């Protein structure tokens, strides 16, 4: 186990960001297989500023699974 700030991560398996792969469904799947920490791909700040739908969709986080 390790900690980032006050967040405890249950193990040291960290899934790297992968463009076009690490979407919400992928992140949930690898967590179910035991990953301690997952992350999404890098997201363009310009895409967010321009409210690009594809970019905004990439920010989706399944709240039910946030801490499991
Ligand atoms: C298909 C694929 C997509 C990737 N996309 C990104 C990305 O969007 N941003 C990023 O910082 N790294 C990206 N990477 C790099 C990975 O995050 C990671 O740094 C790399 O695979 C090396 O990890 P390893 O030393 O555990 O093999 C990507 C890697 C792969 C294989």
Automatic annotation (TrEMBL):
Q: What is this protein called?
A: DUS-like FMN-binding domain-containing protein
Give the matching SUPFAM superfamilies. FMN-linked oxidoreductases
UniProt xrefs under InterPro entries = Aldolase_TIM, DUS-like_FMN-bd
Query: Which species expresses this protein natively?
Result: Listeria floridensis FSL S10-1187
Q: Which Pfam families match?
A: Dus (PF01207)
Q: Where is the DUS-like FMN-binding domain?
A: 15-65
């Amino acid at each position: 186990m390790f900690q980032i700030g006050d967040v405890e991560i249950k193990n040291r398996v960290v899934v790297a960001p992968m463009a076009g792969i690490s979407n919400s469904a992928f992140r949930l799947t690898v967590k179910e297989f035991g990953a301690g920490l997952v992350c999404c791909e890098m997201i363009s700040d310009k895409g967010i500023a321009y409210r690009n739908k594809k970019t905004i969709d990439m920010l989706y986080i399944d709240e039910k699974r946030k801490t499991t």
